[in-house]
Structures are given as structure tokens and as C-alpha cells.
Design a protein that fits this description.
The complex is a heterodimer of chains A (586) and B (229). Chain A has 586 residues and is α+β, with helices and mostly antiparallel strands. Chain A is built from 21 helices and 23 strands. In chain A, helix 3 packs antiparallel against helix 21. Chain B is built from ten helices and six strands; from the N terminus they run αββββαααβαβααααα.
Chain lengths: 586, 229
């Protein structure tokens, strides 16, 4: 890479020359894009130009002129095109926009955190494991931990393992006044959740958050214990706030305490975003915390209303179920109760109505808005017995032309129990057999294809399919929904029910319902739009505004605009291919 | 009659790198600035006294065609012969133990000699580099070659030309006054990169006023003084 300086007014390249031999990224200053003496665009720090001519081998389509004193990084064609011309173009570009911009601002820390999360956990383990037997005394265990500076010890239980953390010693041994001569088996957690050594740090981190555990024994493929991975090994200290947050939520004793704790959720999102976590990972963390808040709100509601008349499950729907919730997300929900087959059980309905009202109220006070489409458990339609839900699900499979069938199938496939009984067959799983119902799949595909992303941007307006221009763009409906809907259909066609969009896309790839390149394209476009959404929401939170999904095109940098447009185009082309497959080849 | 003798460029026993440095042809004084090849050098020192203090780290960044070749940068550490004074540790953050594994100075600078060969040297507040390097080069059996361009003097010349009272002496402040990013200060590589960016920015501006050559840049100090008197 080379660094160049252009004084204000200097022409970096003229129109119609070339092809240019390098792409340039603006490091300081700004560059005007000029065509026929008209300034079309002003590119700012972090933006890239010259790549179109470099890649296409065509002459430049515009003149680039330094609008002020400008420092650019010049990346010669042979280096840049190796990366840009590959099949991962969009991914590279996504990274370039999303990472370099921050990389420049905040130095190498962001990169290193991300690297840490990408590595398999075996690479982040710092010490050889210390393994003891269950009859080791607590005193002996504590002194071993102190000696080697470890914060956890593995207990060998023959065919499984237990774990003792310094937290266990404090809370279980010291606080309860156990003698130091007691065996560690009294205070250990067993069997411990373990992870295999090849899993990437980011996955393990989310597992930790999900389970509220900060230490995992790491096991090799051959079953050997190779060490312990800690939350601190995976993320910067400031990011561990999400653990404290989750912990504080489950320990809140009153709704007021819960509300006070949840006020830290948005600042946590901001710090994770700044700390270099990808939007997809931030969404997972946010969803896990939303789950914890939902559970605790229900605990309070049940404590207030009384023992439930029947066992039940609280289902998270939509983005929370897919673990893709963001600060702007509504928490959609439904209830399924067990045992009673009849839907019209007035006392049961009355009970759930009260519980839902209290829980929803607590969640609203925690900063979650009620769903504008009323897809939640306060709507009697979404409170039913499990067997009634299943009857409905099966009837949709058999006759997908019923009124609202496609909407409801989409809602039910994206459902995940967050409170209550989880062992019964889940509603979403009913749709695992969707492959056997081609008519439903075809209609669902049609449904997914009905969301059309804008076709392009002209002069600060997003042009939709009807040719109408809008200066504001709803990132969620314009980009996220078309992708999640396609992924849901493709996942169902591959036998997957409730899962994240990225998991659905890779299942669709494995199952052959999407080509590898289409699955990758959609994944990259999804990552890009989620990142832009999160960038926008974090900026809003920092300005004290309520986070939302509607952006004005002006707030996107010209380059982000270009790549968002590319993402839209990519989604449209996948939609077109899917439409062809569905309507001609089936 | 007397024979014209070529001046001795290097003494016997000089290393191949030193010989190459001493012999390499460089761009002539009349070369337009953008066509010349430069090497920006920055040193971190145990102190500012060239007789008693030592070079503990160095960096070199090439400039070709007016472009900073970031990928061609060189950075090295040298093991000092005496413990580092505490006040210098506070500046550059290098401790004596950090340099334990580093090669001794005379060995460590061989790559620096190769990097500087055939290039016009650029440094900020160049008297420091000049005094430390000329002593070091003497021990190698070679002489430090002039000219050495000084971004402080070039900055002063630009300030005078734009009728500003003065240019900042501090490298970081100078970079900021030109709206340029500042790389890690008091780290030889960070300072060398900042100096390189400052150099191309200042010279681009000077060149807009009147064409600059290697020689005219080397005369920055005299030109400034002439303006003042």
C-alpha cells in the first residue's frame, strides 16, 4: 500500500482516462466526483474510489478531484483485484466499509478482538488445565488455583467433568461457611458444559452468555481435556458488561430493579459495537439479554398473579426467536399451554391475560415497545393450547390457501420457547416436514418474493419498483425482510424450522435449495444491512434518540450507498432465480 | 603534476551494506522532487547527547514518485550498552529488558544502511538524526551522505511562504496543522510514517508555488533565512 497527498483542487484522475491502476481509500480530506463540471458526489474519509475503472478495465467515468488537502491510501491493482475479483467481492467490500472505517478511527484493537472471536477456542486457551479428583479438599483446590493463577479447576469424574470456579468457592464454600476440608465435589458444577476445541470463539461466547456461564472446559476431538476457556479470553473487559447485565437481570428482585438494570442494555450495545463485535454477534447478545428480561418479567408476573392453572410455554417470535433482535425490535410473543385440549377455557385465558398484561408492561418499562401489528400474547389469537396450535399448523400444511395461512406459518416457524416447559414437541418443529408439502413451499416462496427491495438510488432518493422516489429508506422492510423471508423459505425447504437467518442459509446451501453462491450472496447482503442498521441505531442511541430502522439516504456515505445498492441488486437477482426455479422447473 | 584522487568513500573492512550505501548513485540535485527517491528516517534514543546516548530503535520508510511506500517500511531495535535512563523510557516506552533480545547497534543498523542506500534522507528536526547517524556511520567506516532534508525546515519555509508566523516544531502538531493523521508518536515507525506524510504534503504545497528539486528542498533553511532578512 502507498500513501499519496493531493493538495486541494488537484485532479487525482480525469474522466475518460485509464483504466486506473489502483483503487484509493481516503484517509483524510475529501474528494469530489465530477462529471461535466457538475459535482455528483463528495467522498469522505474511509471511502474508496477508482475501483470500478480498475476492475472493469474501462476508462474512468468521472473526474476525481481533491476537495481539500487529501491523503489517500493507494492500493495497486494487482493486490486489490486479487481480493476484489474473487467470489467474495461483496464480503470483502462489506468488511472494507465496515472495518476499515473503524480501524482508521480506533487503531488495531477492533481488528484484534475480531480475530480473537474468529479463532478456534483451542488457540485462546492460556494455561494447561489443572485437573483434580472429586475428593480433593476445597482448601487444596483453592491453593492450587492461587498458585497457578487460574480462576477455575476441572474435576475429573471419570466419564464426565465438573468445574469449580473461584466464584463457586466464594459463593458456595465461603458464603455458606463450609469447612476447607470439605471435598470440591460439594461446590463443583457437574456435569459441566464443555465445548470442543475447534469451535470459533464467537460461538462459544454466545453459548456462555446464553447459559450465563463464564468458564467452559475445552475438549479435544479425542475427548482429552485441553484447558478452560474464560469469557475474558474471548472479549475485552468492557464487553464483559453483557455478562454482568445478564446476571443482574436474573437477580433483580423487583420490576423497578429490572427496569434499572435494563437501562444498561443500550449502552452495552453501544460498547459492544465500538468494541468491534459484528452486528450479527451483537444481535445474538441483544436477543439473549431480551430473553433474560422476558423470563424475569414473567417470573414477576407469575409471582403476582399466582400459580399457573396449567403448564405453559412462552414463545418468543420473530427476530427474538431467530436471535436477531436489535434495539429497534418489537418483542413478539405467543403462549402455548399444555394438558387442556379445549381452547375455550375461560379461567385459563383469564389467567394468561393477567400474566401477559403485567409481563408486557414490565417489558415496556424496560424499553421494549409493544408490537405494532399486535403479534403478541396479549392478543387472544396468540394464546392457545399446544394441541390447538398444532392442529392449526397441520391445517396450514394441508391447505396453505387459507386466509392468513402464509403470514401465520411465517410467524410460527420463527418461534422459540423462552420460558416454561421446553421438553414438549415445539410448534416450529411441526414445519420440519414442510418439504413434504410442495404447495405450501411454493406459496411461501411467492410470499417471500413479494417484498421487493428498491431498485436504486438517484439524487438522494431510493427508487422503488413502481419508479417512485423516496428520500427515506426503511432498512428493515427494504433489505432485512426480503432476505429473512427468502432464508425462511429456503430453510424450510431444506427441513429446518426455527433458526437464525445465517443458519437457514447455510442449511439451504447444504440441502441444495439455494446454490452456494446465492446463499453466500444473501448472507453477505444480510450482514451488510444488519451492520448498517446497527450503525444507525447506535448513532441514534448516542444522540439520545429512540433507535429505529428508517434512515435518510443522506446519512449513508456515498460508498455505503453504493454497496447497499449492490446488496439490493444481489437480493433481487437471487429472487429472480428463485422465481424461475419455483415457477418453471417445479 | 598531481593525480586527482577520488575521495575515499569507505574504509577497508566496511560491511557489504556499508559499501553499498557509500557507493549507491543517488538522484542529482536538479531532479524534480517527485522523480527523486527518498528514505524517511526516524530514531528513538536513550537521550539527546550524541556523545553519550545511544540509538535504541529506528525506522525507515521509502518514498517513490511522491508516494509513501508503506509496505517497504523497516523497523528495528538495538540493544543498548548501558541501562536506559528513566526519563527516556517515559518518552518512547522501551525498557532495557525490551531490548535484551535485540542485536547490538552495529549489527542492527545493517538493514537500515540498505534501506538508505541510493536515497535522499528525510527526517524531522534532522540535526538529531544527522549527529547520531554520522557517529554511528563513522564506526562503520563510512560517511553519512548529504543532503538530509528536514521536514521542520520545510514546514517553516511553507509557513513563511503562506505568511503564517511559524510552523510547529513538534511533529504531531505539524501534521495536525496540515490536517494529516498522526501515527503512534514516539515510536520510530509511527513517527517515520507521520514524517513521510508531512513531507509529501508540504512539498506538494511548495511545488505549487514554484517547482521544487532535491537541491531546492535541501536549501530550505537558507531560503527561509533569506526571506526573513
Amino acid at each position: 500500500m502507498e500513501v499519496e497527498f493531493h493538495a486541494a483542487g488537484q485532479i487525482i484522475f480525469s474522466k475518460g482516462v485509464g483504466p486506473v491502476e489502483a483503487l484509493r481509500v481516503i484517509r483524510s480530506g475529501s474528494v469530489e466526483v465530477i462529471n461535466d463540471d457538475q459535482v455528483l458526489d463528495l467522498m469522505e474519509v474511509g471511502e474508496m474510489f477508482g475501483h470500478a475503472s480498475m476492475l472493469s478495465g474501462l476508462p474512468t467515468g468521472f473526474e476525481a478531484r481533491a476537495a481539500e488537502d487529501t491523503l489517500t491510501y493507494r492500493i495497486p491493482a494487482q493486490i486489490a483485484s486479487q481480493v476484489l475479483a474473487g467470489p467474495e467481492t461483496l464480503r470483502y467490500v462489506t468488511r472494507l466499509i465496515l472495518e476499515d472505517r473503524y480501524h482508521i478511527r480506533s487503531g488495531p484493537s477492533r481488528e484484534s478482538i475480531r480475530d480473537q472471536l474468529r479463532k478456534p477456542v483451542r488457540d485462546v486457551i492460556r494455561n494447561a488445565p489443572v485437573i483434580c479428583t472429586p475428593d480433593t479438599t476445597i482448601r487444596e483446590a483453592a491453593s492450587q488455583m492461587t498458585m497457578i493463577g487460574a480462576s477455575a479447576l476441572i474435576v475429573d469424574l471419570g466419564n464426565s467433568v465438573g468445574i469449580v470456579t473461584d466464584g463457586d468457592l466464594r459463593s458456595r464454600a465461603l458464603a455458606s461457611g463450609l469447612s476447607g476440608d470439605a471435598p470440591v465435589s460439594v461446590v463443583m458444577s457437574a456435569p459441566a458444559f464443555t465445548v470442543t476445541d475447534d469451535r470459533p470463539g464467537s460461538e462459544v461466547l454466545l453459548d456462555m452468555l446464553d447459559r450465563g456461564i463464564t468458564h467452559f472446559p475445552v475438549i479435544s476431538a479425542s475427548g482429552r481435556i485441553i484447558g478452560i476457556v474464560e469469557d475474558h479470553d474471548l472479549i475485552a473487559v468492557e464487553s464483559t458488561t453483557s455478562f454482568h447485565l445478564r446476571h443482574a437481570i436474573s437477580n433483580a428482585r423487583t420490576v423497578d430493579e429490572l427496569v434499572a438494570t435494563s437501562s444498561k442494555l443500550r449502552p452495552t450495545v453501544v460498547s459492544l459495537h465500538r468494541g468491534g463485535m459484528t452486528a450479527l454477534d451483537v444481535m445474538s447478545v441483544f436477543s439473549i439479554v431480551a430473553d433474560a428480561l422476558t423470563r424475569r418479567s414473567l417470573d414477576f408476573a407469575i409471582a403476582q398473579v399466582g400459580v399457573p392453572p396449567t403448564r405453559f410455554t412462552w414463545l418468543a417470535l420473530g427476530s427474538q426467536a431467530r436471535r436477531e433482535a436489535m434495539p429497534s425490535s418489537d418483542l413478539d410473543s405467543a403462549i402455548a399451554w399444555f394438558g387442556q385440549d379445549e381452547d375455550d377455557e375461560p379461567p385459563i385465558r383469564e389467567y394468561f391475560k393477567e400474566v401477559t398484561t403485567i409481563a408486557t408492561d414490565a417489558l415496556m418499562r424496560c424499553g421494549f415497545r409493544p408490537d405494532e401489528h399486535r403479534v403478541n400474547a396479549s392478543d387472544p389469537l396468540f394464546v392457545r393450547s399446544l394441541s390447538s396450535w398444532q392442529r392449526e399448523a397441520h391445517s396450514f400444511l394441508d391447505d396453505p390457501t387459507q386466509k392468513k395461512a402464509l403470514v401465520l406459518v411465517s410467524v410460527l416457524v420463527d418461534s422459540r420457547p423462552v420460558w416454561g416447559v421446553e421438553s414438549e414437541p415445539l410448534i416450529a418443529d411441526t414445519f420440519r416436514s414442510a418439504r413434504a408439502y410442495p404447495r405450501l413451499l411454493r406459496l411461501l416462496a411467492q410470499f417471500a418474493l413479494s417484498h421487493k427491495p428498491p431498485v436504486g438510488f438517484i439524487r438522494g432518493l431510493a427508487i422503488d419498483v413502481s419508479g417512485e422516489g423516496r428520500s427515506r429508506l426503511d432498512l428493515k422492510s427494504a433489505a432485512v425482510v426480503p432476505i429473512t423471508d427468502l432464508a425462511r423459505w429456503a430453510g424450510m425447504a431444506a427441513g429446518v424450522a426455527c433458526a437464525s437467518t445465517t443458519a437457514r442459509l447455510s442449511a439451504a446451501n447444504d440441502g441444495g435449495t439455494l446454490s452456494a453462491s446465492d446463499a453466500l450472496t444473501l448472507r453477505d447482503a444480510f450482514e451488510l444491512t444488519c451492520q448498517l442498521r446497527l450503525d444507525h441505531q447506535v448513532a441514534q442511541i448516542e444522540h439520545g434518540l429512540e433507535p429505529g430502522d428508517v434512515i435518510t439516504l443522506d446519512e449513508l456515505s456515498p460508498l455505503n450507498r453504493t454497496y447497499l445498492k449492490e446488496a439490493f441488486r444481489a437480493v433481487v437477482s437471487v429472487q429472480r432465480r428463485v422465481a424461475n426455479d419455483i415457477f418453471w422447473n417445479v | 603534476m598531481f593525480k586527482v584522487r577520488r575521495p575515499t568513500l569507505f574504509r577497508k573492512g566496511a560491511s557489504p551494506e556499508a559499501v553499498l550505501y557509500a557507493r549507491a548513485p543517488r538522484d542529482k540535485g536538479k531532479t524534480p522532487w517527485r522523480d527523486a527517491r527518498y528514505c524517511v528516517v526516524d530514531l528513538e534514543l536513550s537521550g539527546l547527547d550524541p556523545l553519550n546516548d545511544e540509538i535504541i530503535s529506528f525506522a525507515a520508510v521509502p518514498i517513490d514518485n511522491g508516494r509513501v511506500i508503506a509496505g517497504g517500511a523497516l523497523y528495528g531495535l538495538c540493544r543498548p550498552t548501558r541501562p536506559l535512563p528513566e526519563e527516556s523510557i517515559l518518552i518512547h516506552g522501551l525498557r532495557t529488558v525490551d531490548l535484551d533480545e535485540a542485536p547490538p547497534f552495529d549489527e542492527a543498523i545493517q538493514p537500515l544502511l540498505s534501506a538508505m542506500a541510493g536515497r535522499v534522507i528525510v527526517a524531522h528536526m534532522a540535526w538529531v538524526e544527522r549527529s547520531f547517524l554520522s557517529r554511528a556511520f563513522e564506526r562503520q567506516g563510512i560517511r553519512l551522505r548529504e543532503p538530509i532534508l528536514d521536514t521542520y525546515e520545510l514546514g517553516r519555509l511553507l509557513a513563511l511562504a503562506s505568511e503564517e508566523p511559524s510552523a510547529p516544531m513538534d511533529l504531531g502538531e505539524l501534521a495536525q496543522s496540515l490536517s494529516l493523521p498522526v501515527h503512534r508518536p514516539h515510536h520510530a515507525l509511527g513517527d517515520a510514517l507521520t514524517t513521510a506524510q508531512v513531507f509529501i504534503a508540504i512539498v506538494t504545497h511548495l511545488d505549487e508555488l514554484s517547482s521544487e528539486t532535491v537541491r531546492s528542498l535541501a536549501r530550505a533553511e537558507q531560503r527561509s533565512n533569506a526571506r526573513l532578512h
